[in-house]
């Protein structure tokens, strides 16, 4: 179905802190679509800040009713969640309005790490051995039930937030208490909240960006993550594409992701998958029913200069996309890690970092005089470095050189949460 003039409106659901708003709104404008922004805000704040459509993403019933009422006034061609925050709401809304959608159950599975593991395991996707435990259970007893090394994970926090590796019972106890404090500080109930503990999988980590159409996966690109991600925390840094892995390995990764998507019930739209690869083959870590986060999509172009967001919007409104092939040039991005807690007082060396050959951009997203919170409690980066070049090796080297020229002036402060002995 191609969208006619009467229905050229798209609803973009997003959290106020998302990096993705500008790219999706710009892509919508380029396609001649009217972008309606649905922000995760209480109605009182939405009115105070003059936000046209404020929604409480946690209250799906009320938010769904609001969206349906909006659609009665003027139809939507598609409803998309820009980040993780509203994938379930988007699924319910698309279903209610008869638009292409993933089922609410599939969208929930792509948000809940325990449900994801259960379905992937049952569906034949290779994944770590896992167990779940309640926050109110005795951590010393739990420490004796798991294998080492292991990884503790919150079920619903995004990215690597709250993810901690433990190599022995002593480290497990510290990690458990740290994760428990984080979850309780976020409003979780000790008696109603469980966490995931799974075996640590060694290997080389990759990220796959894909697009599903009627359950069929099209790989848009495969990123290598050249920095080792072995813990105790799992802060991602550099992504480089195209992958340097052998073609046969890349094909096995695509097959693994396709199996995992089917196991979760995902059938349409963008997916972002994280995997480990070792001598036994690829292992599924996580899969999200949305595109790559942050500003990382900036480095991706398809066909004759089409950005990822435009491709996703075209697909969502039912328009045929002539080509899904990524440009041949190598590209990379670095999510600049936060080295420690404190107040950001200054950023130096941006011009020098930009002067490195192959660097196409340096964007500092952290705000001066604001508190910096590193992983595992934090959920953001200092900024991003972008590069393009002839080969992945050259792109990676340019990004590392550019990063070395940046200097961040951070006034150290007392951490927001007790580190519990893990540093």
From TrEMBL:
Residue span, ATP-grasp domain: 117-317
Protein keywords: ATP-binding, Ligase, Nucleotide-binding
Pfam families: ATP-grasp_4, LAL_C2
Gene Ontology MF terms: ATP binding; ligase activity; metal ion binding
Keyword Chloroplast (UniProt): no
Superkingdom of source: Bacteria
Name of the protein described by the UniProt record: Phosphoribosylglycinamide synthetase
């Amino acid at each position: 179905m191609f969208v006619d003039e009467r229905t050229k409106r798209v609803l973009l659901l997003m959290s106020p802190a998302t990096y993705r708003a500008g790219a999706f709104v710009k892509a919508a404008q380029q396609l001649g679509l009217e972008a309606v922004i649905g922000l995760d805000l209480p109605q009182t704040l939405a009115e105070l800040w003059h936000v046209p459509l404020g929604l409480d993403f946690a209250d799906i019933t009320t938010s769904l009713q609001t969206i349906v009422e909006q659609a009665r006034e003027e139809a939507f061609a598609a409803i998309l969640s820009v980040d993780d925050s509203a994938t379930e709401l988007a699924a319910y809304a698309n279903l209610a309005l008869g638009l292409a959608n993933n089922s609410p159950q599939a969208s929930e599975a792509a948000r809940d790490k325990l449900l994801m593991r259960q379905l992937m395991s049952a569906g034949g996707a290779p994944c770590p051995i896992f167990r779940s435990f309640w926050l109110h259970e005795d951590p010393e007893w739990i420490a004796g039930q798991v294998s080492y090394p292991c990884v503790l994970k919150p079920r619903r926090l995004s990215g690597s937030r709250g993810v901690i590796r433990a190599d022995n019972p002593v480290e497990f106890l510290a990690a458990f208490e740290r994760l428990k404090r984080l979850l309780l500080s976020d409003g979780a109930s000790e008696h109603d909240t469980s966490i995931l503990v799974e075996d640590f999988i060694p290997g080389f980590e990759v990220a796959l960006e894909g697009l599903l159409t009627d359950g069929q996966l099209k790989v848009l690109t495969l990123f290598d993550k050249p920095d080792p991600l072995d813990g105790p925390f799992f802060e991602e840094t550099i992504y480089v594409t195209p992958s340097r892995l052998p073609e046969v390995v890349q094909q096995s990764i695509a097959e693994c992701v396709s199996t995992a998507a089917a196991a979760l019930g995902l059938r349409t739209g963008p997916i972002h998958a994280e995997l480990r690869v070792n001598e036994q083959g690829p292992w599924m870590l996580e899969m999200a029913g949305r595109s790559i986060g942050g500003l990382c999509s900036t480095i991706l172009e398809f066909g004759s200069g089409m950005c990822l967001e435009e491709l996703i919007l075209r697909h969502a409104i039912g328009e045929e996309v002539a080509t899904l092939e990524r440009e041949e040039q190598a590209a990379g991005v670095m999510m600049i890690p936060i080295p420690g807690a404190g107040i950001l007082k200054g950023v130096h060396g941006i011009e020098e970092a930009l002067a490195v050959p192959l660097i196409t951009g340096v964007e500092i997203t952290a705000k001066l005089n604001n508190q910096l919170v590193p992983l595992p409690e934090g959920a953001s980066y200092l900024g991003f470095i972008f590069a393009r070049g002839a080969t992945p090796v050259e792109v990676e080297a340019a990004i590392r050189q550019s990063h070395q020229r940046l200097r961040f002036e951070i006034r150290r402060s007392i951490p927001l949460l007790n580190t519990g002995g893990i540093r």
